[in-house]
Design goal:
The protein is of the alpha+beta class and 172 residues long. Helix content is 58%, strand content 17%.
Length: 172
């Protein structure tokens, strides 16, 4: 049998064309799925980027506020000392004016998130700085005197409270 031209029926032509058509459809679907996966990955990366930028911006704002508040702390301390001095000399007008400024500054700092660190009770090395340890009637390890107030800004300690800690009762 020599090479004779084949008579192809219409059905054989459809089958011959159908197979490549199915392969092309499968390839197109696979390519579409790859593109969809790429888009999903890109959307997830963009969402992560957006969240990271928002966190970075919040951190930047927090640091700027922290810097400002740190600069204002000595002013608050000085006004507190001036109030103590004014009370001793009974200069009512000066005292009222300084009290007003002190209240305004304190309110502005509180509005920015400043909070005074509690100093009554046990010594906490995370928020207190022990400058001295003295024998006293108070329980050992308790704060007996505050030498300088400590402050937090949000959940961060800006400045620890400088305190005197009880060493317990004197043995005599």
């Amino acid at each position: 049998m020599a090479d004779e031209p084949r008579d192809t029926t219409e059905e054989q032509q459809v089958e011959a064309e159908g197979e490549p058509l199915e392969q092309r459809l499968a390839a197109a679907e696979a390519e579409a799925e790859r593109h969809l996966d790429d888009l999903r990955r890109m959307a997830a990366e963009f969402d992560n980027y957006r969240k990271r930028v928002a966190r970075d911006q919040e951190a930047l704002v927090a640091r700027a506020t922290e810097r400002l508040v740190k600069e204002l702390l000595p002013v608050l301390d000085d006004l507190g000392r001036a109030l103590q001095a004014a009370e001793q000399h009974e200069e009512a007008t000066l005292e009222e004016g300084v009290q007003l400024v002190h209240r305004q500054l304190e309110a502005a700092l509180k509005k920015e998130g400043l909070a005074e660190i509690e100093t009554d009770g046990r010594f906490d090395p995370h928020v207190h700085e022990a400058l001295l340890s003295q024998p006293s009637e108070a329980e050992e390890g308790s704060v007996i005197e505050v030498l300088q107030k400590g402050y937090r800004l949000g959940d961060r300690v800006l400045r620890p409270a400088r305190v005197v800690v009880s060493a317990g009762a004197r043995e005599g």
